[in-house]
């Protein structure tokens, strides 16, 4: 009988050792100090108004001129100026050229900086505007070619230049 008891205990030990219902231990996570983090030491590029204006201009380049238009089907000069300001500066300008000329402060041609709005007298009661993008150029919605960039020293624009205004605070 003692031999039977020894065999029974031996079988019980074998059965318990082979039991797979007991949970397997979870792998130990690596210590926090061994984790690798990717942190950029490069500074974010500074806001560049000229680059941002050119980028926004590229999205609208070639859109035809349409008096009163405000979208990709056609837009007028003040809508284009308003759109650039919204996209680049997150700033809402008034809708018309006559209203926009009342905003900001006057600056001379010599003081022009990218983002300044330039105004022209194109007829007896007609006004036109655009956004100075640097290097003597301005982006605008031209009635003859649509959204384009022109030179301020072009004979047509030079003779019709009226004023420039800085909408953004220095």
TrEMBL record:
Alphabetic keyword roster: Hydrolase, Protease, Signal, Thiol protease
The keyword Protease appears for this protein: yes
Residue ranges occupied by any NlpC/P60 domain in the UniProt entry: 47-168
Record bears the keyword ATP-binding: no
Pfam families cross-referenced by the UniProt entry: NLPC_P60
Database matches in InterPro entries: Murein_DD/LD_carboxypeptidase (IPR052062), NLP_P60_dom (IPR000064), Papain-like_cys_pep_sf (IPR038765)
Signal peptide stretch: 1-17
Family: Belongs to the peptidase C40 family.
UniProt-listed PANTHER family: ENDOPEPTIDASE NLPC-RELATED, MUREIN DD-ENDOPEPTIDASE MEPS/MUREIN LD-CARBOXYPEPTIDASE
Name the record gives this protein: C40 family peptidase
UniProt organism field: Oceanisphaera pacifica
Lineage: Bacteria, Pseudomonadati, Pseudomonadota, Gammaproteobacteria, Aeromonadales
């Amino acid at each position: 009988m003692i031999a039977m008891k020894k065999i029974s205990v031996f079988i019980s030990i074998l059965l318990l050792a082979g039991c797979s219902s007991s949970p397997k231990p979870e792998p130990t996570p690596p210590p926090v100090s061994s984790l690798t983090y990717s942190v950029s030491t490069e500074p974010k590029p500074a806001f560049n108004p000229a680059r941002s204006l050119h980028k926004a201009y590229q999205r609208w380049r070639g859109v035809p001129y349409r008096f009163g238009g405000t979208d990709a089907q056609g837009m007028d000069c003040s809508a284009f100026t308003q759109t650039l300001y919204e996209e680049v500066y997150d700033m809402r300008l008034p809708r018309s050229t006559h209203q926009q000329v009342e905003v900001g402060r006057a600056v001379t041609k010599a003081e022009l900086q990218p983002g300044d709005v330039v105004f022209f007298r194109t007829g007896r009661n007609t006004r036109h505007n655009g956004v100075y993008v640097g290097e003597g150029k301005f982006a605008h919605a031209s009635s003859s070619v649509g959204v384009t960039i022109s030179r301020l020293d072009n004979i047509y624009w030079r003779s019709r230049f009226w004023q420039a205004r800085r909408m953004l605070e220095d």
